[in-house]
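subagent[fold] <- orchestrator: predict structure for attached chain, return tokens only, no commentary.
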Amino acid sequence: MFSKLKFDFPASIVVFLVALPLCLGVALASNAPILSGILSGVIGGVVVGVLSRSQVSVSGPAAGLTTVVLVAINQLGSFDVFLVSVIIAGVIQILAGYLKAGIIANYIPSNVIKGLLASIGIILILKQIPHAFGYDDVPEEDFAFLQSDNENTFSELFNILNYFSYGAIVISMISIFMLIYWEKITIKWLKKIPASLFVVIFGIILNSIFYHFIPFLYIHQEHLVNMPKIESFESILSFPNFMAISNKDVWIIGIEIAAIATLETLLNLEAVENIDPYKRKASPNRELIAQGYGNIVSGLIGGIPITSVIVRSSVNINAGGQTKMVSILHGLFLLLSILFLGSVLNLIPLASLAAILIITGYKLAKITLFIEKFKKGWNQFIPFIVTVISILFTDLLIGILIGLIVSILFLLKSNYKNPFKIKREKLNVKETITIELPNQVSFLNKASIKNILWGIPKNSNVILEAKHSDYIDNDILELIEDFRSTIAKERNIHLNIYGLQKNFHIADQIEFVNIIDKDEQQKLSPKDVLEILMNGNKRFADGILTEKYYGQQINATSDKQNPIAVIVSCIDSRTSPEIIFDLGLGDIISIRIAGNIINREIVESIEFSCQKIGTKLIVILGHSNCGAVTYAVNSREDGQYSSMTSKIEKSIIACNCSKERMDNNPNILDKVIVANTNNSITEVLLASDFLKEEIKYQRIKIVSGFYDTKNGRVTFDEF
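subagent[fold] -> orchestrator:
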């Protein structure tokens, strides 16, 4: 951790400088003792920094809780009673962390999180524009649309016309320019200073120059950081009145603070992980526990509630912070500032801080983010933009809730539209409808599944796959049972159900298998058979194999067979025809011999298959990396396995292939394999007048095939 201190030290200063006026503003707006906001920042930085595993998230006083804090203090009547509620909130957060409540963060859609970030960016820009112009009546901490001073985000922009400071405009405009072009600076020692820190120092120096040389541009104290003077350390401490512990309102407010602070923390933590350049994962449960201890300490010594803060976390990341040492140092700097640095910090123009936050806002709400979400479709863009607008015109929590509701509506629409995969295809000769259920099938899918099942035509073959389903809601199981027992029987729908787990209380059933009978075999043309093989190979190469129901196929083919093709292939273990063409028992006659060579016995087997059994297609199937052909090329002179290699010799000579040429050009082996396959077809035609005649009149077709062992695909060439 300390090895990266040289990076985190300046980053923590930048976060501290941005945090200081915000901490003060939170305390002032909530009617708490004047330094409660800064005290909360100290606790948030040190306690949460030590206990949390988040590397870049910075904690501090909860600006989003300002209204709740204000109402709570007024309702309870005194600040010391309110502190008891803060302690109760901390205890609840610790319990939530140990009970793993942080898992809630995993269910927040990314489009809502991105909407949160973008909206914070826009709000930062809109809220800081008045400060950039020197109009500083805007509460620094107030990020809600309707402010505590009865103004709103847009009305404050018009209020700039009533009062602005030329000096503040000069400082903020130059600061923004420097922040934008800082990366292009070529001075090495200067680039080591974070741009935000340089801007703050520059603002102090420039305002000093205004004071001495250009008085009308000088920014007066009301437009600078306003740090109260501390008489003693004890004066900033307040202690809870535990006599109020039996007050039910104290408990109710404590629960409210815990709920809101927990939600804000989880949302901000998820958002910060999105903008962290290293994409590190923090433990939300550990974060809640850390926040809980922080709030207990805050309540014990007079601070207001703390939570994770997206603004300071963003500034932290932009300033180069890499570890949680930023948060710890940030808290320590706030503490030191209370005691020793008030007069120095009071020289910082609010316009300088406004420039930093405007650039931070721009980085959170770049136009490219909106374009990216728009390109992803309405189901991503609409929840995103609704979240942005809702947060902009309400506050963080209400806006997030609205964004979540819209996301859920799109989720419901998506589930209704297509919660499963549905395919209509020919398996062998039968038109089959396959419905594949997803991993999780909830009651949200009920309407769409019912529409599909009840819309299946009469006399259809239907396969309902549930092999990937770990959970199926009971409503869906009842729906399947109703379809199986009533609708399918009434409409003569042949239904296969398989893959259901035992605890689903519906047994698998097989009512049909794709076995070709004699009539179907005879109706097929050679072209139809070739198309069946091509479709089956595509399924195989794509990794989408059909369920075979081998037990049922054994029974269906036990006393008869009606294969559609005879395939002569190599004995290679990678080229089993039934597998690479996604076929079942009884679909093809497979003849396998090394190098797919032809002899008299094989020719007679092919004749028997076509003349007596009724096959319509002959395939001579070669394959890449054929061991038999490779051996024949490498061992042409040794005479071993001569009956096999002599058959391949003709193709080797035709391709002018040798071991040396094959070593220098691996592609030449494939040419020999293809030539050998075509040569085998020639030998079949020369050896069988019957086959030659049938092929001539197109009652039978013979083709060559080449199986690529690298991708599983077969290419065919008609002879």
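orchestrator: received. Logging for downstream: The chain has three domains: 2-402, 421-504, 518-718. Confidence is low (pLDDT under 50) at residues 1-6.
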